[in-house]
Every structure is written in structure tokens, then in C-alpha cells.
Fold each of these.
Amino acid sequence: GDSVTQMEGPVTLSEEAFLTINCTYTATGYPSLFWYVQYPGEGLQLLLKATKADDKGSNKGFEATYRKETTSFHLEKGSVQVSDSAVYFCALSGGRGAQKLVFGQGTRLTINP
Amino acid sequence: GAVVSQHPSWVICKSGTSVKIECRSLDFQATTMFWYRQFPKQSLMLMATSNEGSKATYEQGVEKDKFLINHASLTLSTLTVTSAHPEDSSFYICSASNGGANTGELFFGEGSRLTVL
């Protein structure tokens, strides 16, 4: 079945550092790919998405490119802030239920000032 | 953006009792809601798809008689954990779609932590 594997955390960085959180997937067909973020005490929020190969999703300085050849959707940000501290989930949807999401295990990110 | 609220946010119960968790879409109508379960340091696992006015669709391995789902209105879905046992202790999360089947964006509740003693 479909699956998502993402970088194990926790990840701790200093403010203004470069961030990469790796995400690879296994899926039949052509899934859509997502990054969700969960801030402390809040529900998951959609951060960005890409629906086809070579698409780049971007939001709040974060970017991820849908790479079909490497089945990857790595999350990057050039300069992180303390407010980016959260848990990040990579996810895919596909098959007959486009809204049924398969999640990675989540990566906890802590940014120190 | 749209808001989805879960209640209670945490609950402790004795083994053998039943617990109901509510998921409400506060400012939009949701024909479809999803229930997930998250174990510590693990991914969210989809339990079931809840459709307003019809029976829920359960994922393989999820006991439908154990986890009762009711979606009686366009703004409310409930998950009842029947005869709860310690192994049911987990974080339960719902999401709701603001579109029709297979469309729209998903919005997530803040989660409900269940501890069964």
C-alpha cells in the first residue's frame, strides 16, 4: 500500500539556519503530496501541497518540490525562525478517495534563538 | 480559514466504560469527516471516513463495533469508543472537508487525548 517516510526527529536548529526535512513516498498512480504543520496545542494545518510531478509548493518561506524520479517531497526553508517550532507531517493522497491522507510519522522541529 | 473543534480535548476513563468524542465544523458544512488515531511518536492512522447521513467506512483492521461513528448532521461527527480498555489510550484527531466528495480542503481538529485506566 501507499506509505510515507520522513526524517526522524527531533530536529533542533538555531534561528536563521537552513532547514531540510526529508520525505519520500511509495504510491501507485500519481498521488498529491502535502506538508502539514502542527503548532503546540493546535490542530494540523496545511502548509503547502503539490499535485503533479515537478510542481513546487510554497508558503511562509517553506518550499517543497514534487520529484517523481526520486519519489521525494523534501521540505526546505532558507532561514528558520523561533516561530517555526512545530511538528511537521508529510502526507500523500491518491486512489479513489482523494481526501484520504497517508501520513509520515512527523518530525518535531525546535528552533532556538 | 475554516475551524474544526474537538471535544473533549482530553479525557480519562475507567476500563469498560464508553467515551464519546465530538468533532464539529464551526463555520462550514462538512459532508465528509475523517477520524485518525495517533500513537506516541508515530504517524496518524486513518480509522474511518464519516459521511453525513450514511454509515461510516472503516479502514482495514479497525473494529466498527468498537469505534462507533455517527455523522448525524453536516457540522457534527462523533466517535464513541465502546468498552474502552487501556490499549485504546491514544490521541484521536478528526478532519473535515469543506468541499464535496474528493474535493475541498481538509481542516483538522486539535485532537482528543484518551487515557483508559
Note: Residues 60 and 94 of chain A are 26 Å apart (CA to CA).
Amino acid sequence: EDKVVQSPLSLVVHEGDTVTLNCSYEVTNFRSLLWYKQEKKAPTFLFMLTSSGIEKKSGRLSSILDKKELFSILNITATQTGDSAIYLCAVPHGSSNTGKLIFGQGTTLQVKP
Amino acid sequence: NAGVMQNPRHLVRRRGQEARLRCSPMKGHSHVYWYRQLPEEGLKFMVYLQKENIIDESGMPKERFSAEFPKEGPSILRIQQVVRGDSAAYFCASSSQMNAQETQYFGPGTRLLVL
């Protein structure tokens, strides 16, 4: 059964800290891995990763994929209170060709001033 | 270019009533996905639709739940005879293509509370 596991489930840091969020997956026929940020409303798209070892970067956020070890990390440097959110990792279901996403439980990040 | 629209944003129903949740995909998107997020849980896939077709409903409960995406108008997720366990946030996502390389964009969700 396809599975996505995120860790830690929750994290509390202070502004300026750097955090690393983890996502491991088991999926048949891997195609891509996606990161979303969920505040009070819609999950908003952050990154899609398809190739191992290539870092994707957007401002203070970056992410990388390791297809051999079946995991991805999301890094946030110089955290701000506005980074407080649930970070979701997802992979498309392996044996289905419909693009439906399998989500991890999410990591709840709280950044204190 | 408006994003994915969902309404209502909040819905309160008593046990036994019907809940109808609407989703308008992003302009140019013809693929719609519905997900449910129960308290303290991650998003779970429910159903995938294209215009006038249900493609994958493997995540839908067998009873009381149905979905449609008519030729004209929004996609509708209908829950009949709601029970307290249906209380959750229901998210709709859309994409322009079916394949797994295509990013899904999410709406703000409808938070259903069953009293």
C-alpha cells in the first residue's frame, strides 16, 4: 500500500532558527513528490520534485529528493512567524494513473517571536 | 486568474440533513479532485472527476456520498443524511491535465460541522 510518513509531527522554534522537515514514502511507480503549506485555508503549492539530488529553492525554502533512500526534506532558513503552518508532503498514487495524491500526516510548525 | 473557488466556506447541518459542497476549478482546468481532512489527520483522497465523468471514486464512502461535475457549473460533493463523523474540512483541487506530473491547486475548503 502506498504510504507517506512525515516527521516530526510538530515542531516549535524561535524566529531565526533553521528547520528541516522530513518526508519518507513508499509508492509503486514513483513519479513525483510535492510539498504544500497549509495555513488556515487552502494548501498552497511549494515544490514538485521528480529528480534525485536537485535542490529546488524559493526564497528561504528549499527542498531536495533522494529516490534511492525514498525521502525528501524541506528546509526553512531564518524562520519567521509567518512560516507557522502545517507542511504537507504528498505523492501521486503509484498504481493509479489518475494523479490522486497520497498525503502524509503533516508537520505542524510553530515559529515563536 | 481566480484560483479554485469553494462554497460555502462553513456549513452547519443537523444529523440527517443533506450537505452540498461546491467547487469551481481554476480557469482552464478540467480535472477536479475532492479530499477530506478529518481533525488531526492528513488529507485523504475521495474522488476524481472530469467534466461529466467520475474517473476514480475509490476514496468515497460507499453510502450517502456522491459527486458530480456537470458540463456546465461547478463540481458538487453531496452528503446525504449527514452524521457527526462527517464533520471535517472538504477540499477541492484542480489541475489542467490528468498525469501525475501536473500540480494540483487547492481551494480554501468547506468546513462542515454536523450537530
Note: The radius of gyration of chain B is 13 Å.
